[in-house]
Amino acid sequence: MKSFTGETKKPGVRDPDICVVTCAVTGVLANRRQNPGIPYTPAEIADECKRAYDAGASVVHIHARNDDGGPTFSPAVFARIKEEVRARCPIILNFSTGTILDDVTDQCTYVRESKPEIAALNMGTMNYAKYSPKRKQFDFDMVFPNTYSKIIKLLEVMNEVGVKPELECFDTGHTNGIAPLLDMGVLRPPLQFSFIMNVLGGIPGHVESLQLQTKIMPAGSEWEVIGISHGAWRMIAAALVLGGNIRCGLEDHLYLPNGEMATSNGPLVETAVRLVRDVGRRPATVEEAREILSLGAPR
Amino acid sequence: MKSFTGETKKPGVRDPDICVVTCAVTGVLANRRQNPGIPYTPAEIADECKRAYDAGASVVHIHARNDDGGPTFSPAVFARIKEEVRARCPIILNFSTGTILDDVTDQCTYVRESKPEIAALNMGTMNYAKYSPKRKQFDFDMVFPNTYSKIIKLLEVMNEVGVKPELECFDTGHTNGIAPLLDMGVLRPPLQFSFIMNVLGGIPGHVESLQLQTKIMPAGSEWEVIGISHGAWRMIAAALVLGGNIRCGLEDHLYLPNGEMATSNGPLVETAVRLVRDVGRRPATVEEAREILSLGAPR
Amino acid sequence: MKSFTGETKKPGVRDPDICVVTCAVTGVLANRRQNPGIPYTPAEIADECKRAYDAGASVVHIHARNDDGGPTFSPAVFARIKEEVRARCPIILNFSTGTILDDVTDQCTYVRESKPEIAALNMGTMNYAKYSPKRKQFDFDMVFPNTYSKIIKLLEVMNEVGVKPELECFDTGHTNGIAPLLDMGVLRPPLQFSFIMNVLGGIPGHVESLQLQTKIMPAGSEWEVIGISHGAWRMIAAALVLGGNIRCGLEDHLYLPNGEMATSNGPLVETAVRLVRDVGRRPATVEEAREILSLGAPR
Amino acid sequence: MKSFTGETKKPGVRDPDICVVTCAVTGVLANRRQNPGIPYTPAEIADECKRAYDAGASVVHIHARNDDGGPTFSPAVFARIKEEVRARCPIILNFSTGTILDDVTDQCTYVRESKPEIAALNMGTMNYAKYSPKRKQFDFDMVFPNTYSKIIKLLEVMNEVGVKPELECFDTGHTNGIAPLLDMGVLRPPLQFSFIMNVLGGIPGHVESLQLQTKIMPAGSEWEVIGISHGAWRMIAAALVLGGNIRCGLEDHLYLPNGEMATSNGPLVETAVRLVRDVGRRPATVEEAREILSLGAPR
Ligand SMILES: [Zn+2]
Ligand SMILES: [Zn+2]
Ligand SMILES: [Zn+2]
Ligand SMILES: [Zn+2]
């Protein structure tokens, strides 16, 4: 049988046609003034996870928020989110661990306590800035530090409780920089990468960016694209063509391909899944995603 | 305003979001035993052109057939096809001129007489063979010759009657081989290329194949992908991502992305147009396609 | 120990630093009016092979000529060339089998009788033309046919007598077109490719051309670049950087990098070998080349 | 006349054959225990600049050191270095401005006072770490911060005194991150880039890395490669093939291509220049480099 690339499928090899679709339901940067559909509370977040699940996603990537929409790293809130999601659907949980601080105590705690199947892990340091073309100046201009010692702290907790790290790489040096972690044994194959495109200070949204990132990563790794802001749908299609998994959701881009604002994560996932099918692939079920991402049994 | 690549659109520059969708409605290789939807007669072909038009195509690429499905190069049949299509819709006509013979008298005649807006022109020589993996031998094994003198004969007629050549390139040497024709003045920019992928003896269906072909072609040229057989939908998505135009249709691939056989060209074009929209682009109207392809006024 | 790429060398894997340098000593297109150093007779050819050997080449690619410089496919002349070369040095012999005719009887005979270690084999059909920019017309305009049946005839003889085919690919379709031959078993890994760059009708001399050709070939194959005419030294350097073997010689390009005409193959090979060393690699000895190219013991 | 790529040279366009060779004579990381040839004092540094000049370099990149080899940012030392170099040869001066601190007061002072023709400018933030495979732990693990405000401070001084910034990019996000600076007008074309390869935390040394970096930079920019550590010669050859300028020197890599330690910068530049010539290019004179890099008249 032919795969979507036209080549004959090989038994015993990961089926290239299957695509793990992740939905990043909320993030922390955008708020309801920008898009009224953005969920804040655990129940709202869980409702969005259910919409993503119903539309064909098998993983949800989650940041926690206070009820007013501000970011929180409270382990209790993460626990509550897990509970609310689990009450609605068996979708795989991926919790963010990103923080601009060096201190990752809270992150370690909620990873250890909530044990999401996956925890996203920022793999390198970069500028974190926002420029206003209108005012010709920067709105903010900071460093987003992710030293090896910070990364190792998080990896050790993940290893301890059996949470799979998703290696979030904003540039090629983040991907290439895993070598010492592999050598130390704190990072263990098979690996799972997220290639974030189009963040100021990070790799730009070119097809060649994905080609270089996937060339650098160890052969046999799973990878997905995260296309931020405008150009997101093009990057999703590029990843589909190149054989990757994909991520969509209100954290990444607020708009549907036709330029209309998405009212919830549901239509975003529906569009992504339609793209998956229209290039000749199909979305992974939760069970298939568990196997593809080496996550073990549900818990 | 942002284009589908995330970059700001520039006034006066061809809108990168607009995609010319061509439908190759019949070809000459497949027959009704393989797919009952393949049109043979001028009326059947024209009905299929109308279905393609209704689904969002702005160009149809046409081979003529006898009523039993065999190929014909009869100028009268091409004239009849034009008449039947024109009676149904204003879609742009692209007539094949491909022949395994050196003699292109008939082709010159129907280009001169029917004056389709576009005529497809094979730009190089290659092997033309079909291998049977089952029987471990070749079904046929021939040369598909397209010498410069054959190409020049056809170009001179197209120049004479104002028919736009679509440069069909099966490999990089075909694209690169236009240099003498440009130098002689028999080929004149702006150029329009078709990059055919995945024919035995020609360039294989990789994203990198499209990247190299578009690097070789003169800057500012229009180009489309033609993905043959399995892998066709992936190649269409790749071209969409890379900013190209696309072609689909029963000549190129008989199946929808889910593996079901297409009952007509309509569903193939519908799928292609949905892909166009889902990456953040939109299909060209006939009027837009005329302008993008530099075809002049309808005739 | 680090290889020239900066990566650690792996035991049991072909040493990436070693580069097989081939010299194409004469060809058949250029003559002594163009370059007085071009050898014609078997003794002259063998003298050039010795100069190439002394300068660091481990393989010589040879066409036979009559004493007036015209091409010959006479088995007796090839036998004589072998004898003359063997009297001078143990360099590996690679005999051309290229012919614009379909009939390969002579080629089969001299491969069978002389049993060179390697025989070069053209892997596809293309236009074979020469354009004169001055006269704005073609000097000649032909088809260079290499159908599968012609290729198979030559391969069967090579298999019969244990001569290694060097797969000469002028474009990506030639490289990709080996699939049926592998499936039939007439072509057997490990394979050895030559990627010819910059012939009109073939792939142009871009770095990306080499990258695509090496992507298409089966993993684990050996490959060399053949850069024709101007741009040849750049293509040689590109192949060195990408890990390939290289070919130089009066057949491919008559000039040294500074634009001066080479007086013999010696200075061409000296320059190539200096490039090999200056990128951190080293030229293969004859013994190493035998092993790398899987040629077996001398005969 | 043909360029080294085989294409015809165009009048009025920067001659692609000319390559600006820069020598980074000392750096600050390596010391005389590692290589006795590393210069410390202004006179020693100037002697090395003269050796680089004599060997064919047209630019020297300089860090200042105390007499014991430790780093210094003393404006007086930079002034002294300039004086010593100018007493020996007219080579173009490129002063480093790199510092792990946020405070760039000293850097601004010596740029303003010494007015080197060029000042190197780090264009982004990244991890700065060194891993010991032997001890399976990090020797150090820090952030190398280069926020926009730090970059802008340095750019403003360079603009004020007419010093050309050389944009040192360790990853693609550094190259892509110039957009706000161009929009603010603090960075002004034509631009000059250095693409540093193979630093932990930065882009790895692949040919594709250079291809992506040069795709991202604004068209018409000048660029050079800086290949750090093993793999350096391969990266230099890659840049030569891709049309870039090159840098070598004891700051970047202590070894000649054959693995021997270089006794001074002279043999490193000699090797680089030989590579330049052997791919068919030639090293820029100081005057040509001034014009290519838009540096204006000597001062
Ligand atoms: Zn997130
Ligand atoms: Zn056709
Ligand atoms: Zn030859
Ligand atoms: Zn430096």
UniProtKB/TrEMBL annotation, chains A, B, C, D:
GO terms for molecular function: 3-keto-5-aminohexanoate cleavage activity; metal ion binding. The keyword DNA repair does not apply. InterPro entries: Aldolase_TIM, BKACE. Its cofactor is Zn(2+). Keywords: Metal-binding, Transferase, Zinc. This is 3-keto-5-aminohexanoate cleavage protein.
